[in-house]
From TrEMBL:
Residues of the active site: D294
Name of the protein described by the UniProt record: 3-phosphoshikimate 1-carboxyvinyltransferase
Main location: cytoplasm
One Gene Ontology biological process: aromatic amino acid family biosynthetic process
Residues that coordinate or bind phosphoenolpyruvate: K23, G70, R99, Q147, R325, R378, K402
InterPro entries reported in the protein's UniProt record: Enolpyruvate_Tfrase_dom (IPR001986), Enolpyruvate_Tfrase_sf (IPR036968), EPSP_synthase (IPR006264), EPSP_synthase_CS (IPR023193), RNA3'P_cycl/enolpyr_Trfase_a/b (IPR013792)
Subunit structure: Monomer.
EC code(s) of this entry: 2.5.1.19
Described function: Catalyzes the transfer of the enolpyruvyl moiety of phosphoenolpyruvate (PEP) to the 5-hydroxyl of shikimate-3-phosphate (S3P) to produce enolpyruvyl shikimate-3-phosphate and inorganic phosphate.
EC top class named in words: transferase
Organism: Gelidibacter maritimus
Residues annotated as binding 3-phosphoshikimate: K23, S24, R28, S145, S146, Q147, S173, D294, K321
Residue stretches making up the Enolpyruvate transferase domain: 62-411
Amino acid sequence: MLLALHKSAVVENPPKIVITGSKSESNRLLLLQALYPEIKIENISNSDDSKVMQAALKSTSNHIDISHAGTAMRFLTAFFATQEEREITITGSARMKERPIQVLVDALNTLGADISYLETEGCPPLKINGKLLSNNKVSLKANVSSQYISALLLIAPKLKNGLELTLEGEITSVPYINMTLDLLNQIGVETHFENNKIKISPLESLSPDQTPLTVESDWSSASYFYSIVALSAVGTEITLSSYRQNSLQGDIVLSDIYTDFGVETKFDNNSITLLKKEEYQLKPIDCDLKNAPDIAQTIAVTCFGLGISCHLTGLHTLKIKETDRLVALKTELEKLGAKVSITENSLSLEAHQLFGSASQGQRSQGLGEIIATYHDHRMAMAFAPLGLKINLRIEDAMVVSKSYPSFWEDLEKVGFKITK
Ligand SMILES: O=C(O)C1=C[C@@H](OP(=O)(O)O)[C@@H](O)[C@H](O)C1
Ligand SMILES: C=C(OP(=O)(O)O)C(=O)O
């Protein structure tokens, strides 16, 4: 569906926006709940990725399709590898069949699993013959995706002797590994992470009287509201719930990064209020995002909307996500008149005269440019805040449901004018 965003502004005193639970926390807890049924979960994400995870864990079929969900693909591969007597095939969208999984498959096979490729070597779909994994030590490359490491950590306490992982090379997306370890600790699993070694002790079962674990709202989803406030007038405020100052999610780093754009975050009563405190003092942005790759698109578009330059690094994982996000960002920002250069792991945007030139002025007329989204929820959501500056249209807008199904309704609540 093509949605048209008509140039609008944030209303005064918008209602509080309740953002669904973190899909990263939800998908970890769902997997742990399949291993330890005593676990109770509250505020689970209503994202497509968490729904497919729930459906796959309930399914008795020997054919599982996880669509676009990277965490589900990686976590379930590890899970089904340990389910004795079960033979399944696991597949996903056309893009999922291009997203690499060899590092994880090799590690699981080294531990004793029986996993093979059904189409392209190194990528889904996979055939998994569930087995008792008899080894407990393995080394793997840590610079491709942290999801492989989290997948192994999640099944580790159910292995007879636990697990000892050696991480090779630079470790990417570290906060996601720490999130996995923290959730394991919360259910009583002993973990140890030092330098490039992680050790997990076995834990057979949990006591039946578990207190529910509450998933915090999704910080990556909050990023779009940070961008909206950054692109709005001084004094603009938006309140989001439910958030904690001591989050497990690395994307909380937004609250620091956006101070550079004049956005202040106030934590109060499980909510955050984002306030545009001052006009942004034109200053180039230089940011290493290897610990928070999912907010790269948001930040690049905020900088474009403010007319400032940015140099974003640590982006090597962006090429293997829902789309090649570096190429997608360059293509779509350039449609709007930006000058962007990319390498394998970075993106640079030149400062520009903000929608002031004749050609850019024309872009505010009519229905505006069509932004392509490449089956990537974050392309749709990252570009949407530009609706405060220009008219634009978002192609395949329902793609947002991968992580944030009520995104467009929530944008309307804060004042965006959107038509089909
Ligand atoms: O473990 C997780 O929940 C995630 C880890 C990150 O992936 P990489 O480790 O592949 O960067 C992130 O981009 C993804 O959205 C969610
Ligand atoms: C990369 C993402 O998800 P996944 O890898 O789980 O598909 C994302 O949500 O931005």
